[in-house]
Amino acid sequence: MNALSSWFRGLPQRAVHAGWAWVRRTGSVTAAHPGRFRFGALGTGTRLAFPLGTVFGEPWIHLGAHCVVGEQVTLTAGLMPDLDLGPDPILRIGDGVVLGRGSHVIADTTVTIGSDCYFGPYVYLTSTNHSYDDPHQPIGKQWPRMEPVEIGPGCWVGTGAVILPGARIGRNVVVAAGSVVRGTVPDHAVVAGAPARVVRRWTPAEGWQPPLRTPAPVPIPAGITPEQLLRLAELDEETVSGPADLGPDGG
């Protein structure tokens, strides 16, 4: 009886969770179910999680295939909604890009994010910055400055990083959490700080300088299937706890 009463007491909570899961699934945006949004391009397998952040200027936003856009991510093209921005896309996002929860990508002029880039949560990327030339006018009322932003393929941008107008980030770059990036960052570099500076870089002649402190992870051999990986995980558990079919006497 107590178990039955407990089940009924938990029913409203389970109903709320089930309802919210349905809302999140139904509210997400995909190429097959774009809702009210009319993106310039929305690739196969790409999903914008619900609830969305601010999204406008979507005809000038091109998203590649198999992208994951987290909850509350802002994607904007142009200074405000309902502008005619011309024939070319303003915000281009390549294939396989992940934008973490709460990130902002503000493209008032051209912003390009290469394929297979991963953004942690709450990254802020903008092609526009406030100007403060006139000391007699409030900064918010002065016309902003705009410069294109470009991020090469294969980059990782850590949580809370800020990428400012004019940034040119090469391929396979690591941007440490909380960094503020401006200017040019070379390929295969690690940058950190505010303003961000190169703290490690790889070149064909010297490898990583300074040298990496930890060994590289061992890659999964080619041809290994997901089923085989699951079986390996089970074998690891058996190694720790012993085979599941052994009795108390070990027989």
Structural features, described:
One of its GO terms (molecular function) is acyltransferase activity. It comes from Streptomyces doudnae. Its EC number is 2.3.1.-. Pfam families: Hexapep. The protein has one domain (28-234): UDP N-Acetylglucosamine Acyltransferase, domain 1. Helix content is 16%, strand content 27%. It has helices spanning 2-9, 11-27, 226-241, and strands at 29-30, 41-42, 47-48, 55-56, 61-63, 68-69, 74-77, 91-93, 98-99, 104-107, 111-113, 118-119, 124-126, 128-129, 145-146, 149-151, 156-157, 162-163, 168-169, 174-175, 180-181, 184-185, 189-192, 197-203, 207-209. The strands form four sheets. Strands 1-3-6-9-12-17-20-23-24-25 form a ten-stranded mixed beta sheet, with no helix packed on it. It has a seven-stranded parallel beta sheet with strand order 2-5-8-11-16-19-22, with no helix packed on it. Strands 4-7-10-13-18-21 form a six-stranded parallel beta sheet, with no helix packed on it. It starts with a helix and ends in a 10-residue tail after the last helix.
